[in-house]
Amino acid sequence: SEAASGVPCICCASLFAAMSISSVASASRSGGEGMEVGFRVQTPEANGTIRYKGPFHLGKEGEIWLGIELDEAHGKNDGSIKGKRYFECEPLKGVFRKPD
Q1: Cβ(97)–Cβ(14) under 8 Å?
Q2: pTM summary value
Q3: Are 67 and 46 spatial neighbours (Cβ–Cβ below 8 Å)?
Q4: With contact defined as beta carbons under 8 Å apart, do 39 and 66 qualify?
Q5: Which of 78, 80, 53 is nearest to 66 (CA)?
Q6: Which of 64, 71, 46, 62 is nearest to 100 (CA)?
Q7: Count of alpha carbons within 13 Å of 43, Cβ hemisphere only?
Q8: Is the pLDDT of residue 1 over 90?
Q9: CB-based contact 35:50 (threshold 8 Å)
């Protein structure tokens, strides 16, 4: 599915808060496959853009995580967590999510 802007929207689950876009839920069932950097996503906090996809030092080995830059300052970080930078964004516009 695509958003009205023509940019694909993706759904993923959160360690901190649930995210859901039911029309694209099936796209996220394969551990992040089909979710790429640059894709637009919708979260409870704000809409955003995937800026990072890969391992996360606070996650389990082999897990794929998404770093999302929110459109509004409703996040938790600036693209870094505990001294490890994954992407850059303004303060409070970054969140990390584990795909379903």
Answers
A1: yes
A2: 0.69
A3: no
A4: no
A5: 53
A6: 64
A7: 32
A8: no
A9: yes
